[in-house]
Give the backbone structure.
Amino acid sequence: MNETPQTPGKHKPWTKGRFSREKRLGLWNEPGIRTGPWFWATLTLSSITIVSVVFLVWELIEDHFFRNLNYRTLHYLYITRGIVSSLLLAFWAAWYVLRERRASEQQLHESREHYRGLLEASPGAVALYDGDLVILEWNAAAERLYGFTKTEALGHTLATVPPDKEPELQTFLDQVRGGHAVLDMETKRIHKDGSSLDVQLSLLPFHGTSEQRSFLEVTNDIRERVRLRQALLQLEKLTTMGQMAAGTAHHLNTPLASMLLRVQMLRSSAKGTAAAELEQLENNIQFCQQFVRRLLDFSRRPQPVKQPEPLGGTLESVVSFLSPQIHRKRTRLTVDLAATDGDKVLADRSQIEALFIILLSNSLDAVSLDGSIAVRSCRRGMEWMEIEIADDGCGIDPADMPRVFQPFFSTKPVGKGTGLGLALASNILQEHGGSMRIESKPQQGTKVLIELPVWREETQSR
């Protein structure tokens, strides 16, 4: 053939090696190019017809023009008739066979291009390999998923299987050899750069024209599905832990109230040093009660009720709630809201408390022992107030900054963060008409800037 078919989307010549591979896979079946009974029957009948017509025409010419010729001349005429018949028959057969072959080649070319188009358009990564895992076919989705180009993959051993998954693949191959397809199995594969991929795999037998058995592997990227599943499991665990914490706090309320009552009774009759120590014990029990009460408040899910709220009282409540962590890390916490003293925001108190708990907890996790956190406020015109929470902690890597508001993204060690905090904080601010931005440098601390609309009574009355 003079044509050079192109692989869809790649514009590479269809080389001899690839042509041979197509034949080997049964995609080019040369013996079946219109060589069936009808082909031979048509060729034979047309040849007989041509020979009959030539002989008939020759007989008519001889009868009208060469009736009185001698035997020698007639002999040469007969020889000439045979030569002419043979030449006509040869030209006819050659033309007919070439015409049929061109038509067959065109059909095969279109069929091959159709197959290539389907293969390249497949959303799944398709890899065809033999029993020795030598790759025979590799589509565009496989290039995108694994990073190996078709040139790098074809003719080479499958390089996407992690070493610990090789026994599993051999088990799958044995299962397919036994006549049982492997469908929708979750497993691991590796990218060209060495990173791990969660994939869903199907492995099927592929029968070409040769006796060599091949295997068709189709994989789909399920990393997002696995990540969401793990996140849901983590969320379910957190929900269960929250319910357990609420139940524990509820059961602690009664003994704490009883202890407080007994200490108060003892302090009323005690004197001197004992009275002072009992007063300290009473304060500690009241702190525990306040902590348990706050835990119960945060475990409930009341209907949001927005009303004018001063941020000073809200922050005081949050600091009281987080005081155990603050004292444990010996953190220096300063709160200066003088710039917005007396200003209020229209907000649901429990949600605003949750917002500041999330942000201050993140700062506490980021700072080291004896670190510092500063909360300051300022006005942005008449309509907005800005709250700044700055710490001198470990900071955030620039590569992670675009993802900090994504649900379930966390840079904290396993077991210390869920990745839901900043996403929840951002949603709370959106519900209250505010916004948030983060400025951070590794090892230089983080600054969170919150903007909230100022509540004005005359605006509310209108």
Remarks:
- The first strand starts at residue 125 and ends at 130.
- Residues 16-121 form one domain.
- Residues 149 and 198 are 20 Å apart (CA to CA).
- Residues 71-121 form the longest helix (51 residues).
